[in-house]
Amino acid sequence: MKIAVLISGASGSILSKRLIEVLNDNHELFVVASDEAKWIFKQETEEEFDEFIRKKKCKVFKNSDFSSPLASGSFKIDAGIIIPCSVKTLSAVACGYASNLITRCADVCIKEKRKLIMVVRETPLSPIHLENMLKLSKIGVVILPPMLTFYNKPKNLEDAVDFVIGKLLDQLNLHNNLFKRWE
Ligand SMILES: Cc1cc2nc3c(=O)[nH]c(=O)nc-3n(C[C@H](O)[C@H](O)[C@H](O)COP(=O)(O)O)c2cc1C
Questions:
Q1: pLDDT at res. 134
Q2: Are 91 and 56 a contacting pair, CB within 8 Å?
Q3: Residue 4, exposed/middle/buried by CB under 10 A (0-12, 13-18, 19+)?
């Protein structure tokens, strides 16, 4: 699949890192990270984002690069994933305010009726956040917050992260054994 991995400045860099690691070998990835996302990535993973992504096969674009193919509906991708998704980026997407490449790519996914998954990360959630999520969900965007899992008895943060990534891959119909399913 051709997948846009769009990384905004919410907490949860480990989620984008794991998603890229899982998809890197078998899929064509187009990656964009906001400045805030890169800063938080360094804080949370103790690794520079640019160093991490340099070792991967992905095509990487600046968030200001509107000449990127991701900015145009004529460039076909199979899915866009905002992971993690800040409530600022959520708000921009909900309003069609495409002021950077991440929000433009999401806007293109919506207008072209392509799969868009948003891993919105904030707590607690205000009525503004909830209304923005509802608005997008009603038009087919998948709102997939990084929820904790309990029934499959995670032993550590990695297990909890793999549950979220596994549920996300399920949305793309990508077979995975990242978490123990309920039998
Ligand atoms: C350490 C840190 C953690 C943050 N965590 C969140 C978060 O979990 N969710 C959120 O919506 N914003 C969070 N923010 C705020 C966003 O980074 C901020 O709103 C930023 O402008 C988002 O920009 P972007 O969506 O263009 O990346 C955090 C900021 C910092 C510095």
A1: 98
A2: no
A3: buried
HSE-up (13 A, CA, CB side) for residue 48: 4
Domains and CATH numbers, the chain: 2-148 (3.40.50.1950)
Nearest to 22 by CA among 46, 3, 41: 3
DSSP H stretches of helix in the chain = 13-23, 35-45, 49-54, 87-95, 101-111, 127-138, 157-171
Average pLDDT, the chain: 97
Longest distance between any two alpha carbons in the chain, whole Å: 47
Q: Is 15 in the pocket of ligand 1 (CB under 6 A)?
A: no
The H-or-E segment that residue 100 falls in is: none
Kindly give the distance from the C-alpha atom of residue 180 to the centroid of ligand 1, in angstroms, as a whole number: 31
Ligand 1 centroid distance, CA of 85 (Å): 9
Partners of 118 in the beta sheet? 82, 143
Cis omega (within 30 of 0) for bond into 154 = no
pLDDT at 183: 86
Q: What is the pLDDT of residues 135-159, one digit of tens each?
A: 999 999 999 999 999 998 999 999 9
- As a whole number, mean pLDDT of residues 22-34 equals 97
